[in-house]
Design a protein that fits this description.
234 residues; Rossmann fold; 10 strands
Length: 234
């Protein structure tokens, strides 16, 4: 579904990504690990079209998308949930969801999509008439994920969805992602440090200083002492 080949990204005078190459299969959950400042966010934003590669190619569903604007990538089915609970605080929860549903055609299809979202996040249905800014931090993160899922993206990218959340809410969010992956076979790239992410992922990449330094199955990384100490706090 997605393929990066020798991608280099320069921001200002800083060479952030160095010859990054990897691919993601349809229905696969790819975990992206690495320390702060390693280039994880820049990598996701580059796939989304917020930064242009200096060299290299990005292909999505067999098509080179290097020159596509972000909205063109969204229309092809790529969605990014950035770090920091990016919601519209003055709009209601349901209005936030409907903003995300602009790619969904037909009232009945939108109703069906909302039903699926409310099954994943019952608290979002309970809060649907509230202003989004009045939700707790965890509820806002759920709303951000729900707004992305309602688009029914082909590729869903999440940047540190567990950041700053209580353990109980982290569990709820990862369980909702697990259900979505299992029932809808979502393709996901997940930049995350929480250990629960290893249970969700099919494969993991480790990025350091803008370079992919390790690739492997989650189970093997769980046994890697350096990975456990450096990235999982174990």
């Amino acid at each position: 579904m997605l393929s990066l080949k020798e991608v280099n990204v320069i921001r200002g005078n800083i060479h952030v990504l160095h010859n990054v190459s990897f691919s993601v299969k349809e229905g696969e959950v790819m975990l992206l690990m690495g320390p702060n400042g390693a280039g994880k966010t820049t990598l996701l934003e580059t796939i989304m079209g917020l930064h242009r590669p200096k060299t290299g190619t990005i292909e999505f569903a067999g098509e080179c998308i290097n020159d596509f604007e972000p909205h063109q990538r969204i229309m092809r089915g790529i969605t990014l949930i950035p770090e920091g609970k990016q919601i519209f605080p003055r709009m209601t929860v349901i209005e936030n969801l409907l903003v995300g549903a602009y790619r969904v055609r037909g009232k009945e299809k939108i109703k069906e999509s909302l039903k699926l979202i409310f099954n994943l996040f019952p608290i979002i249905e309970e809060r649907k008439r509230q202003k989004a800014g009045t939700l707790s931090g965890g509820e806002q993160q759920m709303l951000a994920i729900a707004r992305a899922l309602i688009q029914n993206p082909k590729l869903l990218m999440l940047d540190e969805p567990s950041a700053g959340l209580m353990p109980k809410l982290v569990t709820q969010i990862f369980e909702a992602l697990r259900v979505s992956v299992r029932s809808e076979k979502k393709t996901i790239i997940l930049a995350e440090q929480h250990t629960k992410a290893l249970d969700l992922a099919d494969r993991a990449l480790v990025i350091e200083n803008g370079k992919i330094v390790l690739e492997g199955e989650p189970e093997s990384l769980k046994r890697d002492k350096r990975i456990k100490e450096a990235y999982m706090g174990l």
